[in-house]
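Quick check before the chapter quiz. The format below is the same one you will see on the exam, so make sure you can read both the input and the output lines.
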Amino acid sequence: MAGEFGAAQQMPAWLDRLNALQAEAQQLAAKFAGATTESRQFSARDATGTVEVTITARGRVEAIRLRSDWRRQLDGDSGLATAVMEANTNAQRERVSAFATGATADEPPARPGPDAAPPPIPFEPADGPAGADAQRAMRETLNLIEAAQGQLDEAVQAARDRARREYTGHDAGRHVTVRVTGSGDLRQIEAEEAFLRRMQPDYVQRACETAFADAYRNADAPPAQAAADDAVRELKALTDDPSTLLRRLFGYR
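Here is the expected output.
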């Protein structure tokens, strides 16, 4: 038996495929990350060309620019709020289009070089999957998976509830009010346009940007009571290291 296993038994051959799948998943994740890199920005104007909105890769409004003649170009009642909404919608279209182009670009996946491949992990035989230690480890892991599933369900539901909720932001003078969802989607803008029309464009721009920033800050505020995630973190630590998981499940040292 000792001759069959040896002191440094190599991983089973099927684990090579697992390693390859992991590498491909990492490449795909990197591709999506590149398509949504936070440094990217997208700008668009409303139909009149009076208001320009710049958003980040997350779809959040970062800057607003007004033409100097915006008072003449926009309706005096709710023209400013409507134009900002329209420019934001156009910028969001640019963002989605850019993401779709970047994520579906027909590029062959880069294969890791020989130096990038992790060294084979030696396996030393213990009792195997039928051994008492391995059986206990399997039961513990199954219990961990069940606990993590429950915590994930709670976290997903909490995230859904938070994403649907609306959060409000104001500028310092409360002349602009912005409402966004927990995920940052713009729902409504209200502007005290009679006051804003007496102000210079840079003041109006800052008021709008401050209201957006305040709304996002409120949406991003951590919940009063965070959901438990200890089982999820423990399970993630195991799955992040396949060799440790295999040793734990199959009784190898």
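If your answer matched, good. Residues 118 and 200 are 61 Å apart (CA to CA).
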